Amino acid sequence: MSLSWKTIPGCCVHLARQLQKEVQSTNSSDFTEEQKKTLGRIATCLEMRSASLQCTQSKEEFKLEDLKKLETIIKNILTYNKEFPFDVQPVPLRKILAPGEEENLELEEEEDAAAGAGSTEAFPPRAPASQGTLLPRLPSEPGMTLLTIKIEKIGLKDAGQCIDPYMTISVKDLNGVDLNPVQDTPVATRKEDTYIHFSVDVEIQRHVEKLPKGAAIFFEFKHYKPKKRFTSTKCFAFMEMDEIKPGPIVIELYKKPTDFKRKKLQLLTKKPLYLHLHQTLHKDS
């Protein structure tokens, strides 16, 4: 195994997501439930390592020597029967779909609904809703600025029908490559008319001055589709670097699939429905 994933933040996150895909593949029955939990805990550790590498202070929350302990577990996952060496919870498992597959499944669902099929079907219990994967604010640096974005609410015409809604926040470069660890908010519990309220702070995991030209912060709105038993992206929004300024901001919603390269954007609706945010800048002088 290459050592690069131990030192590069993006590689840690990528490997964490690859582990999730492996567990959720069609051959996931190859793993016992305990092995799936172990893989989920490994994914959590990898994301913690990525977050530690984003920290500019010398003290790391998850050190390289800690990460090395995971290599043996990964290599021996089918026979590993010891207690996991770190007190962490598994990254919540989600159904991961290939580009375009989600849209096809939703089209089938709409056709089924129109035909009245399966309206009383009972579904097996699913995993508890994610409590989110939000990260703490980075340590301050002299002359550097940190950004906190409060996700206040999102306007949707069918807001009341969305099940277990949450937001995924990512920071991408012009090529759609992750610059920071991806974060999920906790599931929103308050719905009011055409709004879903989050009222949650997201700490951007890089100093503003260190974000490259052309970068953007993405907000993907996701919710659970019980008929197809997967979590779906309903729409997305994004902020570009020139929009980073203190105070409230309202940004437009776009149709899925999420276009991280911002090449073929289509507004979700002509109705005045937006994502409402509030920005706070922290600068250590």
Automatic annotation (TrEMBL):
InterPro entries for the chain: Aida_C, AIDA_N, AIDA_N_sf, C2_domain_sf
Domain of life: Eukaryota
Gene Ontology process terms (BP): determination of ventral identity; negative regulation of JNK cascade
Alphabetic keyword roster: Developmental protein
Cellular component terms per the entry's GO annotation: membrane
Regions of compositional bias (Acidic residues) in chain numbering: 103-113
Region (Disordered): 103-139
SUPFAM superfamilies registered for this protein in UniProt: Domain from hypothetical 2610208m17rik protein
GO molecular function terms attached to this record: phosphatidylinositol binding
PROSITE patterns to which the protein is assigned, alphabetical: C2_AIDA
Domain C2 Aida-type: 135-282
Pfam family, one: Aida_N
Functional note: Acts as a ventralizing factor during embryogenesis. Inhibits axin-mediated JNK activation by binding axin and disrupting axin homodimerization. This in turn antagonizes a Wnt/beta-catenin-independent dorsalization pathway activated by AXIN/JNK-signaling.
Family according to the record: Belongs to the AIDA family.
Protein name: Axin interactor, dorsalization associated
